[in-house]
From TrEMBL:
<protein>
    <recommendedName>
        <fullName>Sedoheptulose-1,7-bisphosphatase, chloroplastic</fullName>
        <ecNumber>3.1.3.37</ecNumber>
    </recommendedName>
</protein>
<dbReference type="GO" id="GO:0046872">
    <property type="term" value="F:metal ion binding"/>
</dbReference>
<keyword id="KW-0150">Chloroplast</keyword>
<feature type="domain" description="Fructose-1-6-bisphosphatase class 1 C-terminal">
    <location>
        <begin position="255"/>
        <end position="375"/>
    </location>
</feature>
<dbReference type="InterPro" id="IPR023079">
    <property type="entry name" value="SBPase"/>
</dbReference>
<keyword id="KW-0809">Transit peptide</keyword>
<dbReference type="InterPro" id="IPR000146">
    <property type="entry name" value="FBPase_class-1"/>
</dbReference>
<dbReference type="GO" id="GO:0009507">
    <property type="term" value="C:chloroplast"/>
</dbReference>
<dbReference type="Pfam" id="PF18913">
    <property type="entry name" value="FBPase_C"/>
</dbReference>
<keyword id="KW-1015">Disulfide bond</keyword>
<dbReference type="Pfam" id="PF00316">
    <property type="entry name" value="FBPase"/>
</dbReference>
<keyword id="KW-0479">Metal-binding</keyword>
<dbReference type="GO" id="GO:0019253">
    <property type="term" value="P:reductive pentose-phosphate cycle"/>
</dbReference>
<dbReference type="InterPro" id="IPR044015">
    <property type="entry name" value="FBPase_C_dom"/>
</dbReference>
<dbReference type="InterPro" id="IPR020548">
    <property type="entry name" value="Fructose_bisphosphatase_AS"/>
</dbReference>
<feature type="domain" description="Fructose-1-6-bisphosphatase class I N-terminal">
    <location>
        <begin position="69"/>
        <end position="248"/>
    </location>
</feature>
<keyword id="KW-0934">Plastid</keyword>
Amino acid sequence: METGITCYSRGAILPSVPSQHSTVLVSPRTISPSFSSKSLKSSSLFGESLHIMPRSSLKVSKTKNSSLVTKCEIGDSLEEFLTKATPDKGLIRLMMCMGEALRTISFKVRTASCGGTACVNSFGDEQLAVDMLADKLLFEALTYSHFCKYACSEEVPELQDMGGPVEGGFSVAFDPLDGSSIVDTNFTVGTIFGVWPGDKLTGITGRDQVAAAMGIYGPRTTYVLALKDIPGTHEFILLDEGKWQHVKDTTEIAEGKLFSPGNLRATFDNPEYNKLINYYIREKYTLRYTGGMVPDVNQIIVKEKGIFTNVISPTSKAKLRLLFEVAPLGFLIEKAGGFSSDGKQSILDKVINTLDERTQVAYGSKNEIIRFEETLYGSSRLKAAVPVGAAA
């Protein structure tokens, strides 16, 4: 027997971001492993104190057998949705704090001056100033959540102790601003993050994630998230008053002729990839590719069809990081009803051995991933899969 779930209408819990505040940019290398709550409350990065609800105010209704009744609805606020979706108060708080950081990053991206680069990150890539700002905001939000034990980012690829508990806590890996090289052209960019239980970010797989999300900074700002224990991938839009509102669920990625081909230079000396691209062209697929991984993968979830590829070759090595980008996006795609692949297996089954591990990847509908695997390697594990319930 189901019991009702109390919804709490607290209004907009996210503070406005005053444009008059100046921001001092700091190199990611100077980020302290631990931040004090006091410094966060006075942080000019957030404009004012973070107005995330106190931990004691998070309440969940359960059935008699203690299983959570999920009745998430379109129109729910982010807090209402999370409160219905999971009994884990720590995860709720962490996702709320990250939502606050995404909202603030969105404002900074919209108002950033992108006339040039400000520094070089630890991998030697050129980095715009707004990358550094996003990185700092996300580290601060994770500290303020009080439930993050360790965190690392693509810009700061070493474990940072966030001060949270190991038991009941989480470790988070993120790409603060994926697509930063196209910020100055005013293309859509975004943030990617994955959440793992406990205190490990190596020796794990993408399937071990308890949540993953991306923030998309385009004409609209959206927060697209998935939680391990509920079906679907869920989109929230940022309203003018600073509140996240649930606007879309995706539970199936159907077939459709839409392709986003990354790393096309690999077709020069990878004949199988060249063959695949020629198939898309010959079959009159619609090309939709921005050069930003977040918008290109997000369109598969929003349009509920398509294929994204980023393939390697002998002279064009893997650039995408499994921990910071590929595994979290794979979690979102597969929760949305799609599939992911490195050519031979699901991205979510790849063991993350090092923080900087890189891979090729494809995301899309089942038939598109079958075609991807067969074209590149001659066979597909999805075709050979035994249907659920079939005799051994």
